[in-house]
Every structure is written in C-alpha cells, then in structure tokens.
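A common beginner's mistake is to predict each chain separately and then try to dock the pieces by hand. The better habit, illustrated here, is to supply every component at once so that their relative placement is modeled jointly.
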Amino acid sequence: MTRSTFTLLLLFFTLPLFSQQDIMELGDKNAKNEGSVTLSGQVFDAANGEPIPGAVLQILPIGLSDVSRADGSFRLTMPAGKYSIQISFLGYEEFNAPFQIFSNARQDFRLQTGALKLNEVVISDIRADDNLTSVMAGVEQLSIEKLERQAKFLGEMDVLRSLQSVTGVTSAGEGAAGFNVRGGNTDENLILMDGNLVFNPVHALGFFSLFHPDMVQGVTLYKGGVPARYGGRLSSVLDVKLREGNDRQMSVQGGVGIASSRLVLEGPIVKNKASFIAGARVSYVDWMLKRTRNVDLRKSQAFFYDLTAKADARLTPTTKIGFTAFNTHDNFQFADEVKFEYATTSGSVYLRQLVGKKINLTTSVNAGQYQSNLFDINGNDQSRFTNNIQFLRGSLIGFYQPTDAIQLELGAEQNRYTVSPGELNPLENSVVKADLLPDEQAHETSLFLNNQWTISDNIELMAGVRYIFFKNLGPERVLLYEEGVPKTEETIRDSLQFGDGEETASYTGLEPRLSLRVRLSEASSVKFGYNRSYQFFSQISNTASATPIDIWQLSNYYIRPQHADNFSIGYYRNFRENTIQSYVTLFYRKIYQLIDYKDFAKLLLNDHIETELLTGQGKAYGVEMYFNKAYGQHRFELNYTYSRTQRQIEASAVQEGVNSGEWYPSNYDKPHNLNLNYFFQIKPNSSLSVNFTYSTGRPTTAPVSTYSTRNVLTIPVYSQRNRYRIPDYHRLDLAYTVGPWGKRDRWRNSLTFSIYNLYFRKNAFSVFFRQNPFQNVKAYRVAVLGTMFPAVTYDFKF
Amino acid sequence: MQIKFQHLLLAALTGLLFGSCIDEIRLDTGDARQLLVVDGLLSDSLQVHDIRLNYSALLGLGLDHIKEPVTGATVRVLDDAGGIFDFTETASGVYSRLMKGEAGKAYHVEIKTADEKTIRSTPAVLAQAPPLLPATAKVVEELTISQAGTSLYDKRLALEMNTDVSAMPERPYLRWRATGEYEFGEDYPGIIDRKICYVKNTVDLNNIKVFDTNSLADGLLFDEPLLTTKYDYRFAYMYCFHIFQYSISEAEYQYWRDVRDNVTIDGSLFDPPPGTVTGNLYNPDDPNDQILGYFSVAGVHYKRHFVSAAQLGVSAPPRCRSWSGQPQYSECRDCTQIQNSSVERPWYWEP
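With all components supplied together, the output reads:
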C-alpha cells in the first residue's frame, strides 16, 4: 500500500467520526489568524465548582499539553485549526471534545466525578512550544512517547540511556554507573523518583536504570535554571515522576525480554478515589551464565531485581495523599576476581492540600538507605567491606498563585544523613582483622523562595533563593595535623574528640537562582539562566568511572563543601508551527573546592581520608545545539554538544599539585558529542527507530616508558594525569516495533526487535598496557560491549 | 535448530555483561622523555651487592625491553655511623661491592653521574627479617573448557608462604621473591652418556608480593599465595625454589604497592587510575627531576624449597621419553641448549 493510498483510507475512515459530534467553536470566527492562538481557561469540579489543580489537558492529535495550576487555570498555544481536547484527572471522568479555534479564546471546563472508560492516555508534560514559553533555560523533559522512540538496548526502554541522547549529557562509557551533565561528576546530579532520593540509579553496571519503565510518567532534567526548591547537588536535577494507578479497574502490563522481565499491576483501592500501582522487574542472566561453557562465566553472577509501589488517594476534593516505595537489589560477581552487591530501600509519603483557591500546600517525608558490599574472594584475605547511607528528609512547600502572572513557591527542607563509611568483616578462614569506622552524621536545613513572574506576554522571569545550613555532628575524633605541611599519616600530632550530637563543622550557603525568558517572536525566544549550588555530600570515587561501591563523604572539619556557579544563555527557534524545534545554548560553570585524589589514594577504611584528597577548582564550558522534528510520520532529533571540563590542583605548602598545577581534563571530558535519532511510523502499528551516537574518546593516563628491576619486573612509567585520550566512541542502534495489536480494551501486545551496536564497533571503555615476557609493551583497549547485540522483547497489557 | 538458537541466545546474554573484548591498539605518546632509573638493594647478607643505573625505555620505538645503561658514574653507600662504601662499575651500568649491611643502621646511596648530576636516596634503617617457615607447595587443578566443549583440568603448582611474626616487637612489612631451578635429564633412543642439566628458571615474572603483617590478627600467616606456575616436566625430577623474604620499610612497602597498582591495571571498570610512583631517590639540586626506581635497604632471610612429582604424589611426565614414541626435542639430546642451563650440579642440590 502506498503512503498516499494509506492517507486516503485513513481520511475515509476518520472523517465520519468527526462529523458525528458537534464541534466547539472558539474565538472569533472572522479572525484571519494564520499564526498561533492561545486557549486559556480553568478546570472546575462540576459538582462543587472548586478549581482542580493538576488536571492534564491535551490537544490532539498534535500532543500539546498543559497541567492546570493551583486555581485550575491552564494555557495552551497552538496554530488555529481543528483539534480535540482531552482532560483527565484522578477521580474524574475523562473529558473529550473536538473543537475548532479561530483566535485567542477563553474556555472553562467542568469535570464530572465518576467512572471512566478505560482508555490509553499518552501522558506528556511537554507542549509543542514549551521550549519557547518555558522560563527555565536548560530544562529537558522526556515523555514516555519520546523515551519509547529511542532504539532500546535489549528491547527495554531505559530512562538513563535515553538521557544520554540529550545535549550536555554524557557518560564515561558503556558500563559506567551514572551520567555526567555539563561537565559535572556523576555524584553532582540530584536524582529523585517521586520525591525519593536516589544515590545509585543503576542496575547491572549501568546497563539498566532502576526506574521501572512501565511506571514512569515523565522525566525532567534540569541542566540549568534549577528552581529553588531543588538543592544539594552541583550539576543537575533529574526528577522522575511515576504515574498513578488506574482508579477504575484492574490492569496488568509487562514485558518479557532476553535478559529481564517486568510486570506492573494497577487498579483501584477505592473506586474513583484511591488507586495503586506496583511493579517488579527481575533479571535472569544468572541462570544463563550457569549454562555457558566458559568457567569464569559459570562462576559469575549478574542478578538484579526491583520492586516499586505507589498509591494515591483523594481524601477530599481538595486533599490528596500518596506514598511511593521501592526496593532494589543487585548481585554482581565476575569469576573469582570481583564480587559486590548493593541495595536501595526508600519510601516517601506526601499530603497535598488546596487551601482556599490560590494556595497549594505539599508536605512530604522520605526515608531510605543505600548499602553496598564489596567482597574480597581470593586467598587468605577473604572479607566483606560494607558501607551504608541512611537518610531522612522532610519538606513543606507552599505554592501561591495570587494572579495569573505570579507563581510563588516558599518552602523548607530538612535532611538528616547517617553514614557508615566502612566495616570490614573477615569471611571464613580469613586472616583479615575485622575493622570498623565510626558512623558520621549531619543535618542539612534549607529554606527557599521562588517566584515565577510573567512580566508580559513576551517576558517571563523566575527568581529564587535557597539558603542552606549544614552541620556535621559527632561523635567523631578529628585528627589534627602539623600546620604548614601536607596532611599525611606522619604529620598527625593530636586529635579532638567531639561528643554525640556535638557540632564538628558547620557551613552555610546562599544560592541565588535566576531564569529569564524573552520571547522575540511567535517562533523564537532567548533565555538566560544562572544558579549557584552547594554540595555537602559527595561520592569518593577513584576509579575510571564511578562504581556502585564507592563511598559517600559528608563535608566535615577538613572537607569543605564544593560549590558552583552555573551560567547559560540560549536561543530557541521553532519552525512550521512548532513542529520543528531547535536551540543553541552556551554554558559555563565554575566549581570551587573541587575534590580530586592523590595518586594511589587509599579510600576504603581510611579514618584520615583527608590525607588522600586534594582540593582545587574546576570549570566546564560548551555549546549545545539541538534540532527536532517532533511530528509526522518521519521524526528526527539531532543534537551536538561541544564542551570541555577541566580541573586545576595547584601545589601549596599543605598539598601537592597535579600535573604541575596546570589545568587538566576531567575523566569525562569528551569535547564532541553527537546524537541522531530517526523515528519512522511505518504503519499505525509498526515503527522503526534508529539511533547514532558519537563522542570523543575520554582522557586517560597512559604509560610512556618502562624500566626494569633485575630484569624480572617491568614497571610502566605513566604520563601526567589524563594526558592522552582513548579512541573515539560511536555506535548505531536499530529497533523495530510491531504493535500494539489486540482488542483495544482487552489484551494488547507488541513485539520489539532491536539491534544494539549494529556495526560491531569495539568502543574502548579504557586502555591499558601489558608486556608479555621478552616482548615490547603494547597498548590494549577494553570494549565492554565489543559486539552487536540483537534482542527481542514481548510487551503486553490487559 | 532449537539447540542452535539456545546457543545464540546464551551467547547474546552472556556477552551482555561479560562480553568485553580486549585487543591491541596504537596510542600516540610520542612526546615522552627518558628518565634515570636506579635499581639497588642493600641487605644484611654478606654478598656482592649491585646497584644498576640505566635510562627508562620509551614506548613505541620497538626496543622497549632494551635499557640504556648509565656508565661512568660514582656510586657509594653511606651509613649513619659515618661509614662510606664505594661501589665500582663491574659491567656497563652495574656498580658492585661485596659487603653486608647491619641491622639497626640507616643507609642511603649517593650517585654522581658522568654529567655531574647528583642523586640521593632517603636514609632507611635496615630491619632484620623474620625467619621463613617452610613454604607449602601443592598441585591445584583449574577447570578450563576446550574449543570442542570438553572439560579440561589444567594442573598448576601453587607455592604458598608461611611466616610467624608474633614474637616481633614491631610487625614488619614483608616482600617475597622467588626464583627457580630444575633438573633436566636427557633421553633419546640409543642414549649412551646421559647428562643431567640444572636450569635456572624465572617463575615470578612481574609478580609483586608484599604484605603488611600489621593486618594479621595473631601474627601468624599461613598459606599466603606467592605464585603459581604450570605443573609440567620441570617437576618430573626435582625443582628447587629459592625464596627470599625481605623486611622492608613502610615507605618501600608503599612503593611496591603503588608499583603493583600500576602493573596490574587491566582496564576494568574497577581499576584505580594509574599514577606517578615516587620512590626514595631524588636530585638534591632539582626537586622536579623525576628519578625512577628504589634503593632498598632490607633484612633478608633465604630458604630453599625442593619439590618433585614423587613428593607431591602427582605425576609430571619428563619432557624426554625415548620409550614413549613422543616427538623428540633437541634439548633431549643436548640439555645445555636450554637457556641458563649448566651440567654442574649445585652444591646444595638434594639427591
């Protein structure tokens, strides 16, 4: 069937549907408006007339959407024409109506409480012109739609892998845990899942993220222009929202892949008032490994699971309560060489109340822990090293919208961290002595105020401030060192003992936040963003990339908080009535009190870790370019980032320098990054997506010469830190999806065939050097995924 | 068909996390320079002590294993009691002297090169080494799978160290080294005058074994792996391990740990980054002049450990078996063809 024949048939079958309903006519019929028009109004409860905040409004078929504000108001900008509006909110009947809009218009909607028909709702928080109208610069929103368009590794959609196709986001390589944003370290990203703090977002060495793909509603990444309600990390905020369960009837959804399977169950607790959604995911790579011929693989493990649950209930028309909890676990072992396990358990509760018509209050509490175990499984040293983080967070946020033009947010947040930095326990028949480092604890209190002010149709300003007060608390023994010389074990001269709860160190930080958007025309905007951020809790990692077993270190007597100033300016331009979006953004970041490491730093079970750390400054800068054709049968997304991230550790009387005090690249400095995504909706129930990615090889420290001792041992002499680079990275992926098929309100199926790394590129994760007896030293590259990976995944829903 | 699909599926899955591959690449590191290397050891054993001077070899020139010697230097060792011990150049870049260090004294080396560059080491006190307990040698089997899918057991000889430092007032830092020597018997059809050769064997190539006895709960260390080597014809008659236990300073212990970290990097996700290893040598006139190597001051305890297939109760067929119909090797007719071999029976050789 040709494309034109298909279009004609589609029109033939769909035109009668439109003709069966009356079309709402909005605006001035006589207006000759060929540009964009704005539909605004409010959403009310039909029974009591109360405004409904949080209702999702969608304009179909263009996928434009908005969420109603505290007073139920909304605003949608679209080209004049014929559409259908869909409004949905928990506990209310879904509203659907076709309309034609001629000019700017105001229309209110009233939702009925009661049963709804089951419908597949594509949830998207992204409006077609959101890139122009949103005040925040450097904010990326990923809807489920967009995530699903990416070619999937092993057939599974994944939030973190998709993030790496966003401008300014990179990773150290395949298998690296976490991601880097605009030259920041992996620990500089605040990661939240429905308000739950996440310290390690990955499974299986970073090949999967812990976010259950069938439960994710949407993802927002703040690379810049971070609102004042977020704090505690230098680089970015990744806010993952889970969707609410179906409050009308039970449904089941899942997928069976070759490495893991997943299942989601959802349904009403109290029909139309309260719902739940629960998901589980489990890998079965272990089972496969046991059946391989390779002995090392037979001894290996790669098991993970995660359980996620969420429940929401509307107590009254103006009060809503909910909780989210999750538990994840990973076991990893490779032969007799390395074994570790890690687990996260977290839960959060929120209560949201509408006070009057203009104030929305949200109270939330989150408690959880992250624990990792590293095993030494060889020889006499067999042991288990454990570290653990426990946290308790509470926040109260008030949202006040006195007028359409002003949205005020005022809040307070309290964090309490308890860190067990290390416990060593010998395993059976081990000669190792047990060891334990004392717990560390700290409080972090923040107050914040944020105002989003629409000054005019063309100018919008977001200004905020966050004030943080951090206290590190005893009991703790602080070692004192000789003054004017580097801190080493040999220069310890005394110690200070602090009692339980006694303050050992305190720091404050004032974080101004500013975003300004100036709309130059219907199709273009300029945005400026600035924010300062402090980080009091950092990952201490001295490996090529962060690992799940790295310890986290609180700011203390010696380790001052890192802080950063982030600047960005961007020009945003849309074409063809917002169906094509583009931007160019420049960013610059300066980092103070940046932490780096001495050569051969010993970070585990070290009660004087300050002797292994170096402090200096860092900078990151770059340009991000983006082009997206987001609608139609053929969709393209192209982004390119040029960025550098560098650091400088100067020698002084109290510390040694790195690379003679000169600027040197960070481990994840990859100047050129290019991502291309092409999506082809071949038929309504089949699609093809193609991803291509390219980046410069990351820096490495390489041996430049060797020497021998007694002709037995050949010792490599390494270059200055990160003096050279590993080869460039590039890869092509394909995915072909058939479906969904099946009866619309009953069983729905789809199959995804995917190929990762289509042309067998052996991308180097790292480079190392080896000398075979009586031969020259040679450089070798390690490719974590050095081949092509085909996969097939079956997804279902009923 | 079903089996084939299963294999493909397994291949894809197992490759998922463990399918890493390693292959050679070229990396341009052409702007490096040669550095001076000092390799010296002073022990409490009366023997000819060598201090070797050479330059590091630049990578990528195809001559990586050739070290350019530093000749014409003046080399001497000084102790903290005013003793000065001059070394003489006995071979190109090798400076030697028969002497014996004394436990409790601090020693350092002073070198002046032909181009008037001065190099010193930081003084280190010679610490007595604890006595070695008899080592443990055993044959272990490692399972491997052949290309055809057959399970194979590869026999290896494992040498393990035993030490008791419980009576020492200060727990020492230890370094172990081992060399080997084995008996090789000629055998060929019609053999008349059968020679026996004694072959020196390098067994701990690129093996760095140091141990901090402060980590021992009771000062007793048993079965600490030192090395493993293929269990083959070398053990058919008699094999002698020469084991050296050095009591080194904490600084030297740290040096060898750093060297080991650099040497054992294999590109994995969990590798700590390599770094610049700093030894105990410096140029007093130029603190930025990087001098490689280490001048070690250590007490030593030495022990021989003989093992043979007969003792271990695990057969190790000799290489030369005229009766077996196996292919004959040239060394089976003349064992002196083997590198580092001699027909002279060492005086310490056990019957």
